[in-house]
Amino acid sequence: MKLKITLLVSCFFLFQSCSKEENTWLLASNSVLVLKVDYTTNTFEGGKELIFQLASQEMTISKVYTPPSDFGNLTLIYNELNEVVFDGTIVWNGLGQINYPQNFLSANQFDYVETTDYIVPSAGFENVFNSNNTVYDYNVMWSSVQGLVKVREYLAENPDATVKVFLYTPSVGVGNPEEWDWIILMKN
Question: Torsions phi, psi of 15, nearest 5?
Answer without folding.
Answer: -65, -35
